[in-house]
Amino acid sequence: MASAGKRRLSISNASSDDAGIITRFTRSVSDSQIVDTTKRAAGDAAVVAKKLLKSTGKAAWIAGTTFLILVVPLIIEMDREQQFNELEIQQQSLLGPPPPAQVQLPK
């Protein structure tokens, strides 16, 4: 039984040594300058992306409201004008051509 207890102790020491190696390696990697530079670059990219998304949203809002205020009424008015012209053409075809204009000569 004493040998089984020693074996357990040596196995637990081996795993703690492995954990120590992994911990030291992880700390050395996370404390490296490359990781710090990468974190800063990722943070800066996130800030730029957020600003770009915000400004794009503002531009889309401005373009959308401008379209609604200026272009939609223009389209509606053009459609009315086209309907009016079609109605005039239809009426002219029903009534026939206008009579020839009589020119009065001066006396």
From TrEMBL:
Signal sequence extent: none
A single Gene Ontology CC term: mitochondrial outer membrane
Annotated keywords: Membrane, Mitochondrion, Mitochondrion outer membrane, Protein transport, Receptor, Translocation, Transmembrane, Transmembrane helix, Transport
CDD domains, A to Z: TOM22 (cd22884)
UniProt topology in membrane: Single-pass membrane protein
Domain of life: Eukaryota
Pfam families linked to this entry: Tom22
InterPro entries given in the database record: Tom22 (IPR005683), Tom22_pln (IPR017411)
TM regions (residue ranges): 59-76
Subcellular location: Mitochondrion outer membrane
GO terms (BP aspect): intracellular protein transport
Family from the record: Belongs to the Tom22 family.
PANTHER family per the UniProt record, alphabetical: MITOCHONDRIAL IMPORT RECEPTOR SUBUNIT TOM9-2, MITOCHONDRIAL IMPORT RECEPTOR SUBUNIT TOM9-2-LIKE
Name of protein: Mitochondrial import receptor subunit TOM9-2
